[in-house]
Every structure is written in C-alpha cells, then in structure tokens.
Amino acid sequence: MIAGNRNLKNKTKAIIKAGEFDNIKNPGGFFWKYFSFRSRIAQRIYILVLTIITITAILAYNYTPDIGVELGNPSPRTIKANRDIQFEDALKTEEDRDKNEALVEDVYIYDTEILNGKDGALFQIKYFYMLSQIISAKENKTEEEKISYLSNLFAGVYPESTVTRVLSLSLDDSKRLMDTTTEIMKKIMSEKIKPTEIDFIKDDVNATVSSYDELSQSEIPFVTSIIQANIRPTAVFDPEATAKEKEEARAKTLPHMVSILEGQTIVSQGEVVEENDIIILTKLGLLEREINWTRYLYIAFTVIAVAIMSSLYIYRFDKEIYENIRKILLVAIFLIVFTAVIKGLNTLATIHLNLWNYLFPIITVSMLMTIIFNANIGIITTICLSFFAGIATNLDFSLTVAYLLGGIFSTYLVSNVSQRSGVMKGGFISSVVLAFLFLVINLFDGQPATIALYTALGLLNGIICAILTIGLMPFVESVFKIVTAMGLLELSHTDQPLLKEMLIKAPGTYNHSMLVSHLSENAAKAIGADSLLVKVASLYHDLGKLRRPEYFYENQGDMDNVHDKLNPSMSKNIIANHIRDGIEDAIKSNIPRRVIRVIAQHHGTSLMNYFYEKHKDQETIRTSNGNSGVIESHFRYQTKKPQSREAAILMLADSSEA
Fold first, then answer.
1. CB proximity list for 28: less than 8 A, separation 6 or greater
2. What is the rounded (10 degree) CA torsion for 141, 143, 149, 152?
3. First vs last Cα of the chain: how many Å apart?
4. Can you say whether residue 459 is alpha, beta or left, with left for phi > 0 and alpha for psi between -120 and 50 degrees?
5. Taking Cα atoms as reference points, which of 361, 333, 299 lies closest to residue 48?
6. Residue ranges covered by each domain of the chain
7. Helix runs in 211-292, H state only
8. HSE-up of 426 (CA within 13 Å, CB side)?
9. pLDDT confidence band for 21 (50 / 70 / 90)
10. What are phi and psi of 74, to 5 degrees?
C-alpha cells in the first residue's frame, strides 16, 4: 500500500515537472544505444526484428502438402494412385457449362410502346404532319425559312425534299397521307424487329408502300422517306429471360466426372506436371508438407522491405508514435496477429473453399489504426497487410489491390469518428466498396453465382470488420493505455462517476467545469485543435477540488470565506495543491495520460494574485536583494507552462470563466 502511494506520488511529480511518466537517461555508448534493452533505439530495433521474423515465419511456412512436384515442371518420379477415387473435374464441367450457355440465343420481347407510346413512331409521324400544316400557314415566313425551321425541329431526320413536299400539302392531302402513313407503319412494326434487322426492314419499306394503290407514284417516295425515318426496333433484349435460359442450360449440364483406379499412373517421371495432375494428387492425399526455401527467402525479403519502409515512415513523419514504445508494440502486435488470421483463412481456402480469401479482416486494422492513431498509420498498416495478403494468396494481385483500396477508403471514412455509430456507418460503406471491388476483379472470369457470392462476401466482410473494430476498441484502450476519440467521448458523458461525485460534493466546481468545457471546445474548433481532448480535460481540470471543496469560492455559497481566517501562505498551498490532488485522483481513476497532461498545465506558472496582495498588505515587503521576487514566486503555481494548444486554451478559458 505504501509502495503504491509512493509510486502514485512519483508519477504525479513527473507529470507536474516534466509532463511525462518516465524519462530514461542515456549513458551513451554504441552497445548501450543499439543493444541494451533499456535503450529506446534498441527497443524499437528488437520489436522490428521480432515482427519481421514472426510475420515471415507465418507467411513462409507451407501448409499445403508437397511431394516434390511443381506445376509446369518435370516430375522427379512416377506417381501412381494409391486408391480408387471418383471426383468431378470442375474445370471440364465449367467448360461444358460454358459451351451449353453459349448455345443459348438471346431472348427478345415485343415492346408496344415503341409503336404506340407517347413518343412512339405513330406519334412522331402524326406530329410531323400536323406541325407542317401549322408552319405552312405562317404568312410571315418565306418558304426557305419554313423548310429550315421544320427541318431543325426534327433535327434533320427528314430529307429536304420530304420537308418541302409536306409543307406544300393541302389540309386534306396532309390528313389522307398521314392516315396512310400510320397504317403502313402499323403493318411494318407489328412484328418483332431486332436491332440487327432494322436495315433489312428499311430496305423493304419501298416495296410495302408501293403496294398501296391509293398512293400516287410521286407520293410513294415521300411516304417511304417518312416511314424510314421513324422505323425502330420493336424487339427489346430481355436480360433476365436470357440469363434464366442460360442458367437453365448450365444447370442441365451434367458434371464431368473423373474416375481414378488404384495403381493408375498419374504422372510419369520426366513428364511435365499439369494442373489436372495436381488436382488428382490433391484428391488422393499424396502431397506432403515441405518448406520451400526459395519462397521462404523471397517472402523474407518482401517482409523486410515492407517493414523497414513503414518503420522509416513512422520515424520520419510520426514522431508521436515513434516516441511511444507502447504504441509501436501495438502496431507490431496487430500486424502479427492479423497476418496470422490472413494465413489461417488462406489455408482454409486452400483445403476447402476459395471464399475464405474474401474474408480477410484487413479493414478492421485499417479502421482501428486510424481511430487509435491517425489516417496515415491506418494507410501504412493497410499497405503492409495487403502485401502480406498477396503473399499468402500466392501473389493474387487483384485481391491485393481490392483489399488495399478498400482499406484505404475505410481509413478516410473513420478518420474523424468519435462514436461507435460512426464506425458502423464507415464499416457499412466500406462493405459496399469492398463488394464492388470484389465484383470488378471477378467480373470477367467468374461465373454469375460465384461473382454474386464474392460480392456478398464483400458486404459481409465490411460488416464483420466494423463489429470487430468496435469490439476490440475497449480491449486496446485498456491493455495498451491508449485513448481514442470514443474513449474521450465516454469520459465526457455526465453519467461518469467522477462527474456525478463532483456534482454532489462541489456543485459550483461542476458548473464552472461545464462552462469552461463549452468555452474550450468552441475555441479549439476555431483554431483546429483537438476539441474533444480539451473538452474532456476541461471537465476534469478541477478534479482536485473534490478533496476540499469548501476552500474554493464557487462552492462556498452563503458560507463565510474560510480563507479570511487563514494565513495567505496556507491558502496558497491549499489552492495550489488542487492540481496535484487532481492528477493523483485522475491516475487512480484511469484518466488517459493525454488528458492528465493538459490538466497538469492548466494554471502554468500563473500568480495567485489575491493571496499575494493579501500577504503584502499583512507584512512589510523588503524590496532589496530581490526579496520581493522570491515572495512573488512563492505565490505562483509550481507547474509547467502549457506545452500544447489544448492546454493553453484550457488555461485561457478557465481564467475567463473564473
């Protein structure tokens, strides 16, 4: 108990004086710098090396049995079947299905709207005739203007001779020809006309029009041109019916079965091993485990390159994480654990179904790292795991790119979230994006059912990742003592035990803290500081006043001011100690270190002017030999000046509200 209190006091002093929990002195020396476990640099090097070794071992170990045969290479020996087996040759079956599907013709349906609809062919013909009569009656236009105007109205689809002729028709001739034209159009377009047949139909229009005796020889080309300009395909492609017939054709295709008898030669010595041979050997269970050292080295070099590049980025551009060994360890653990998960799922895909490759939880790491640290670290870890996923899936480039893009997009979605609902929303949107990416990479060589399955798995993947992110967040915050926006948001809820206690014991301090919190949050938003951090720090900045609430003016109410009966130095000590007491209580209550740092600096080295002036009134101050300076410093807070924008904002807001 005594040791625990001493440790608490030491931590409090460290925060007040230096703003850190621990400061390790560097005694110097090459060995100490790069090999001692107490050296900051050595610690980071050890973590990097262990991470590289572990990830390389996970990715390089071959879980697939191997008997020395490799696809495309000569077999080192003759291999025979050790038992009778019968199985479906999926490749051959798929080829048969593709052939039967290709034999299915496209399905077309007749669309009556094309002829009789609001904008159908009959309407266009009637509209042409009627409009020509209206324009023809205009006396303020010349013939050339009428022809040009009517042609432009129909975008030049009619020949100039046709436009000229229709404008010269009398009202009776116009009505007669309109009725005849629509009658012929109904006859021609009453049958299904496919897009590929439209040219042949247009060629036959003249013969059809010529069969009408009521038309003169001069009217036949005129009516023909109008019909040819308006004739359209009436047969509309029905993708659903076509797909259904193709699916039925595929479903009726019998499986291509392969029978292997015991003792049958699968591959002879020196014979090039084909994919079908590998399939048969796998079905027979003749493959054995073996480490491929070439592959092992390739993986090792790839992992080393990715890890070192990522480490250099963190060292160069994210000093906050580099300086915190706990955060570095967290990143390393996540990379190792999720690489193992990826490898495990890939193993299931190898021995079971390929669908497991579409459930890699890379987006979980992307969102977690973004929420815990920042979007840059989220992107870095996404790149790392995407590369590792590519290695695990034997360089499946398309899958690697899909996970990479999906993960990077998810970091953008959760870069500013502070509530779990935001994570779920980000996960849902990410699932849609991932489903689209899976659809794209399988669109050209996958079957409809397979494409649909992988697309659905993309949706499922994103939702699972969002749930995992929310579930892992409290664990990470608790174990690694890392505060996130969601953790800060929980601390800002008024149902927190400390805030309830403050409301009961020190209602004046509670109201003051609420007002300071409001001022600080708005100020932080205005300058782009961490508004949530300063809001939480403001709520708890006077936590130390709970030990002696009656000694602080805002809690005295109608009571007499107890400081009127105290020595100014005693009053100064009581007031100043609320910072130390607040830090101790914050540490006991597991308030995050970032919040405690801001609390510790919210008075800086400011002067307690009231007690200083009171002291001067009570005693004669000697100004010689600097005594007045000593006395003034005695009445200053013995804490560090604000070291961040958030601490400075809190200091100003606290002073303004007070």
1. none
2. -170
3. 38
4. alpha
5. 333
6. 108-237, 294-482, 489-657
7. 219-230, 239-251, 275-284
8. 31
9. very low
10. -65, 140
Q: What is the DSSP string of 23-54?
A: -------HHHHHH-TT-HHHHHHHHHHHHHHH
Instruction: Give CA separation, 348 vs 63, 143, 360, 376, in Å.
Output: 10, 81, 12, 32
Contact 171, 129 (CB under 8 A): no
- What is the distance between the alpha carbons of residues 337 and 381, in angstroms, rounded to a whole number? 12
Give the Cα separation of 593 and 326 in Å (integer). 13
For residue 497 the two structure tokens come to 């035990």
Distance CA 9, CA 14 (A): 9
Place of tokens 């508004």: 531
User: Are 132 and 167 a contacting pair, CB within 8 Å?
Assistant: yes
For residues 394 and 426, is the Cβ–Cβ distance under 8 A? no
Element (H, E) at 213: none
Residue pLDDT, tens place only, 481-511 = 777 777 788 888 888 888 888 888 888 888 8
Does CATH place domain 294-482 in 3.40.50?
A: no
Question: Is there a contact between 402 and 357 (Cβ–Cβ < 8 Å)?
Answer: no
pTM for the model stands at: 0.56
Q: Select from 375, 363, 487 the least CA-distant residue to 429.
A: 363
Query: Average pLDDT over the chain, rounded to whole?
Result: 80
Q: Which of these, 307, 298, 292, lies nearest to 54 by C-alpha position?
A: 307
DSSP letters for 286-342: -------HHHHHHHHHHHHHHHHHHHHHHHHH-HHHHT-HHHHHHHHHHHHHHHHHH
Strands 265-267 and 79-80: antiparallel
Q: Measure the CA–CA gap between 15 and 119, rounded to whole angstroms.
A: 79
CA dihedral 315, 318, 320, 321 (to 10 degrees): -70
